Amino acid sequence: MIKLNKDKVYLLGIFFVTLLGLFLRLICLDKFGGGWYDEVASYGIARQSFPMGIIDKLYNQDFHAPLYFFLLHFWIKFFGASEIITRSFSVLFGVLSIPMIYFAGVQFGSKKGGLLAASVFCISAFQIYYSQEIRFYILMGFLSIVSLYFLIKVNKNSTIGSHVGLALANLAIIYTYTIGCIFVLIQILVFAVYLYKKNKVALFELIKFQAIVVVLSLPYLPLLVHQTIMANRGIVNPAWWGKFTPFSIFSVFQDWFTPVLVNIKMHGAFYFKSLLFNISVEHGTYNVYLFLFWIVLNLIPSLIFIIGIINAFKKSWSLRVILSIGIFFLLFAVGMAYMDKLVLMSRYVIFSFPYIILPACIGLVRLRNKKISKVLITYILMINLCYIFGFNQSAPKLDRLDHYGVAARMLEKAKFGPNDMIIIPYGGRFFGSYYTKSRIFPFDSELTFVYGHPQYMDAVFGKDLSRVLNKKNAHGLLRYDILSSHVSGIFEEYILQEGINKLPKNGRMAVLLLRQRSMDPISDAIDKHDVVSVKHLIINKYYLYKKFPLFSFYNYYKTRHDFLEVCYKYLTPEYIQVSGAVNGVITSQEMELTPDTLNEITGVWELHVLRKK
Predict the structure, then answer these.
(1) What is the DSSP letter of 449?
(2) For the whole prediction, is pTM greater than 0.90?
């Protein structure tokens, strides 16, 4: 009989946990609805030329750091540009995170804690979901683990190799995410305070190597400064879509600690509203079953991790330092969200995730009562596995928002080609890389209202008005423009010159509009183009109008109306096609052109096809 020593048992364990993690990230990788807005943006930026094409796109049309897009560019170049291939890039870092968090635990001196943390990463809904997303979040999480690993090494044995590893990981973090520099700053400040009392020699080495990181980060500074200027230039706050409430924090912890994801689709403002709606009323009765599900799937797992965190905080100063780094960065994000500078989403604070999960897992395996420890750990692992394989809303099975793939298939089915043009206000600047067979009309709602792009601002509002508009006065100055059913002569001329006049005879125009449903009645009225409700809000409830994001009024109401008004005025309509998700199934139908057509539409995408005679 072969006897394995404990080291080999742990290595065998992490091998099988990693294999399971790979399997869970590969199933359902092909999302039928295609990418959502952020994924289309990632794809569009990464397809630019390296390096200046990517940098130019980030400099003028985006808010993010370049490293992820550089890496994705070469991944696409070597392996292909299909959605499965591009999603596989994130799968790679999601899978690598599993053994990496284990080795961080080993470095700390807790193989059991490391193996439990790896098991949690393996089956974490949060980790699985973003391991299938064409976005930089899972890379951020992986780099955070690498940084944690070397931080523990520096604390354990301050060698040049460990300091170099920490410096390189932190440099990569800074070049991957806009506020990565804040995370690194918090990490170094907390660790420096700890080293000041424990090891001043290690502190000196830490300062020396992190100073090099600062110097090597300077080339990124002009891009970051310009992006900050762009954020201030627009008339809409970049965080327009997510108002902070204390419940936002609950939704982040639910994503991190439980198998049920809520913070990917909505910000925390709707967390308890949704919860109470689901558990309070069903045909006039109290829904006990949904409430019990919430306790079993959400409350108990969260409490178990909190027990682990509390025990870890008691056990050692090193664990307190690690936890403090994660908690302080989370508090920074909460403060930014409170000031409307950031939306508090679980993915935006992914740097904190390993700094909280690893200590929590070490705390759980080090509980004094080993029977209770085993019961709690078993519950966490089993409830996650049962949810993954037993529920249609589990992380691997979740489709993406927006369904840009559906929009592309609608155009493909309509055989849109080089003689045709597409107006797509939301995502237009990236959709041209996603659907390459037709020209894209030069307009993008986010570039216009959030970034304050001069060309588009002048086209919508005219030069005189666009020069005086800012975040403070825009609601007041644009109030009557939103109310007006009239298209300004400037915007009509822009649509004619850049779109309709460039169509050849028999060329077609597609007006492709994203429809979104919301729990918020104001958003719902805007999306349904309910003129009476919108006018009542602006005229009679001005205080509510001023609090509501201006982007929604323009992207989903006014601009949408103006594009359709002009196109229907100068082009011959052929048909409207609607595609939507009904119980998770994408459906598509053509609709007759009637006065009530727009009010009947409840789909995800609304395609108006018109022809130039």
Answers:
(1) I
(2) yes
